[in-house]
Amino acid sequence: MAEYWFKPKRYGYGATPATWQGWALTLGTVLAIVAVSLYLRFTAHSPQALLAFLLFDAAAVSTLIIISYRKTEGAWRWRWGDR
To answer: Among 71, 57, 56, 83, which Cα is nearest to 23's?
Structure first.
C-alpha cells in the first residue's frame, strides 16, 4: 500500500500536505529557496547569479510539484468544493 503525503485540495487545483512528510517537503523547499536567495543576494552581484537563482528556483519548484503529484491520494483536477 502506498503512503500518500498530500491530499487533493477541496477548492481549486492541486494538493495540500496531509502528513509530516508532505509538510517537511514543502517547508524544505521554501527554506532552500530562501537560503539560496539570501546567499546570492549577499555574495554575488552578476547576471550569472540571477540566472543561477532562477534555475535553482525552477528546479526546486518542479521537484516539489512532481513529488507532490506522485504522492497525492487521487487525481489533480479542478474542484469546486464537492468531493
So the answer is: 71
Query: What is the DSSP track for the chain?
Result: -PPPSEEE-SEESSEEE-SHHHHHHHHHHHHHHHHHHHHHHHH--SHHHHHHHHHHHHHHHHHHHHHHHHTBSS----EES--
CA nearest to 3, candidates 81, 67, 83, 71: 71
Phi, psi of 63 (to 5 degrees): -65, -45
Over residues 29-76, the pLDDT tens digits come to: 999 999 988 888 778 778 888 888 889 999 999 999 999 999 998 888
